[in-house]
Amino acid sequence: MEHDGVRIHPSALVETRYVGTGTAIWAFCHVLEGAVVGRDCNIGDGCYIESGARVGDGVTIKNGCMVWDGVTIEDWAFIGPGVVFTNDLRPRSPRGPHARARYADDGWLARTRVGVGASIGAGAVILPGLEIGPYAMVAAGSVVTGGVPAHALVAGAPARRRGWVCACGERLAVEDEVARCGACSRAYAAHGEGLVVVSSAVGG
After folding, report:
1. How far apart, in Å, are the Cα atoms of 192 and each of 16, 30, 151, 154?
2. Is the alpha carbon torsion for 101, 87, 20, 31 positive or negative?
3. Is residue 136 assigned to a domain?
4. Which one of 120, 179, 200, 202 is least enclosed by Cβ atoms within 10 Å?
5. Residue 2 pLDDT level (bands cut at 50, 70, 90)
6. 181 located within any domain
7. What mean pLDDT do residues 124-128 have?
8. Conformational region of residue 100, where left means phi above 0, alpha means psi within -120 to 50, and beta covers everything else
9. 17: alpha, beta or left, given left = phi > 0 and alpha = psi -120 to 50?
10. Hey, CA dihedral for 88, 118, 84, 61, is it positive or negative?
């Protein structure tokens, strides 16, 4: 079914009005009222996107992902199959008398941001309240317990930095404090805890 430039599979339940033109939402997805999904996204089968979640433009979310309130996924990010986000550092059932007062407002909510162009591999678990930097890459099956700098490659449980990656996705070689991509010729230098491009690829 296509309406206003948005393709929604007949089995998907899309309750939000905020879905951008060119986006496709496939079978058995549930997108709650109050979620925001940008333009030209692809949301794979069986995904759940909760109220309060924000998905930018050009994002790919593969099958079986859970994106909760407080999670922001910026433009062009890739979320692999079975990725699980979380949003509560000390979760309890808000229906229990011992914790009900804690959930009276959104003070419990720990917000997570996935930066522009970042990639999260299949089956990764992202703990709440983290920043995953632009063009970072999280390896499949990782458990991310801390922030990930821009262009960092992290892997493991808990995830640790294993190297650096280019915006094109290739591993970077580091020499004389400059990181270079052998595939596209971009060069990077240290900036804060991450990297910043200092010369672009040939042809842009």
Report:
1. 38, 38, 12, 17
2. negative
3. yes
4. 202
5. low
6. no
7. 98
8. alpha
9. alpha
10. positive
Mean pLDDT of 62-67: 98
Residue type, 192: G
* Angle (CA) 34 130 171, round 5°: 115
Q: What is the model's pLDDT at position 96? A: 94
Stretch 89-116: mean pLDDT, rounded?
95
109 DSSP assignment: B
Total count of domains within the chain: 1
Q: According to the model, what pLDDT value does residue 200 have?
A: 79
Provide the CATH number for the domain around residue 49: 2.160.10.10
185: in domain: no
Output phi, psi for 101, to 5 deg. Answer: -65, -30
Considering only CA atoms, which of 96, 55, 91, 93 is closest in space to residue 72? Answer: 55
The encoded tokens of residue 157 equal 């449980």
